[in-house]
Amino acid sequence: MFELLNFQFIQNALIATLLISICGGIIGSLIVSNKLVFLGGGVAHSAFGGVGIALYFGFSTMLGAAITSIIMSLILLYFVISKKQNIDSFIAAAWAFGMALGVILIDITPGYGSDMTSYLFGSILAISAKDIFIILIYDILLLIFISLYYREILSISYDEVFCKLKKININIFLFFIFIFISLGIVMSMNMAGLILVLAILSIPAYVASMFVNSLRKMMIFSCVLSFVFICIGFFVSYKYNLSIGACVVMSAVCGMIISSLIKFILKR
Known about the structure:
Order of helices and strands: HHHHHHHHHHH
Radius of gyration: 18 Å
Number of strands: 0
Number of domains: 1
Structural class: mainly alpha
Largest sheet: none
Distance between the termini: 41 Å
CATH architecture: Orthogonal Bundle
Mean pLDDT: 84
Helix content: over 70%
Shape: globular
Number of helices: 11
CATH class: Mainly Alpha
CATH topology: ABC transporter involved in vitamin B12 uptake, BtuC
CATH superfamily: ABC transporter involved in vitamin B12 uptake, BtuC
């Protein structure tokens, strides 16, 4: 199995795995701590419409997905800030519309109809050096943002009243948090695809939340778990010739089940 490391595309995939683990661990922690999992699903599935638009008009699918997910996240941010009661209905509608638009545009784009699986379930082995560079820049910006404004992010995630007393501009920080979440979802789509990306983001963060009591530790532990789950899924996929994205999610789910049992035993 180790002879695979001699291939350039395997090396690219492992580097991307490390970078996506950093992205997924931090973004997943923000999603779980702010109870935005369903909202993240709406952004992820609406991004598929951007993939269809990009393929139809002939430009980068990552750019198309990023633009669409940012627009959708800002619309959802408006619903969150204004505390609209029907936000769940809107997310569901955006979820369905994005998928439908993407499927239709891919269907009418010559040569891409049969390649839909790679966008739905991931194709990290096809990741390029350019994609790795983009993810690296994103991770650096994300780490800088978290390092500079960790206290504000922590306050927004757990104590909105404290933010108001300290006169923290919640809307500005939510704006940047939502932007980073939407772009993080797009970056992670290279690993697990559209259908499975939410599990990659939420499961490691959920497992981490069982055993740590701070957001910082949750982010670090979640990054480590993401890397472990992805590596396990990667090698299981190679051994049994299965889809990488599905294997990664299955390893994450197994990890969640084992962690839940351990947590139950410790409580007993």
